[in-house]
Design brief:
The protein has 1 helix and 21 strands. By secondary structure, the protein is mostly beta strands. The longest helix is centred in the middle third of the chain and has 8 residues. It comes from Pseudoduganella aquatica.
Length: 224
């Protein structure tokens, strides 16, 4: 999990772990991260985090959002990027460690049990264990254009949301045998291979191209 360190006039004010998929930044109290300054818009920016990758998006703020001195609309955050909003400097620190799929983290101080040595299995069981198991379907999204072209997002969660809340949001659902996509909200309609996406889940095929307000992403399907 990444985090941001917020400072003003050289004094650190907050250290915020990016523990939620969407964290809003702004002057109003309803934001996840409140920056109390007149030059900060009510709803200024948002950081969306999926696995260990975070994206910063300016919400059409009056005075802009800057990363490493450049004004940005959307930006894929890199380790130690310096974000400037009004009088605030926000440093992004990436964790860079992904959980092993299917492995639950041990709680602090807990003892991890070690399995006792197993005796050789009887012949029928050994034969059954040798039988090939069905391959698990693994999907990923690859951004095809824009500043984030080439970036890939593994689809490891049961549900993955993409887009801008209130404008255009799609949901990709994962099942053992594949993936499906549907539009969750917004008047701007996403497309799959140029065909408008509806609210009913549509099965994704390897190579399908999703278009979210001009951002094109290819669905890739692999097998474990």
């Amino acid at each position: 999990m990444g985090k941001i360190i917020i400072s003003r006039d050289g004094v650190v004010e907050q250290e915020v772990p990016l523990s939620r998929e969407r964290m809003s930044i702004g002057r109003r109290s309803r934001n996840d991260i409140v920056l109390d300054h007149a030059a900060v818009s009510g709803e200024h920016a948002v950081i969306t985090t999926i696995l260990d990758e975070s994206f910063l998006e300016d919400l059409r703020s009056t005075n802009g959002t800057f990363v490493n001195g450049q004004r940005v609309g959307k930006h894929f955050l890199q380790h130690q990027d310096s974000i400037k909003i009004a009088k605030y400097r926000i440093e992004y620190l990436a964790d860079g460690v992904r959980p092993v799929p299917g492995a639950a983290p041990a709680s602090e101080g807990a003892t991890v049990p070690v399995a006792a040595p197993r005796r050789p299995a009887p012949a029928p069981l050994a034969a059954a264990a040798a039988m090939p198991q069905p391959a698990a379907v693994l999907g990923r999204i690859e951004v095809l254009n824009g500043a984030n072209a080439g970036k890939q997002l593994p689809l490891t969660k049961p549900l993955t949301t993409l887009g801008r809340p209130g404008v255009q949001v799609i949901v990709i659902s994962r099942a053992p045998d594949g993936y499906a996509v549907a539009q969750a909200e917004g008047e701007a309609i996403a497309t799959v291979n140029g065909t408008p996406l509806g609210k009913q889940p549509q099965r994704l095929q390897d190579g399908d191209v999703l278009d979210l307000s001009g951002t094109q992403m290819a669905f890739k399907q692999d097998f474990a």
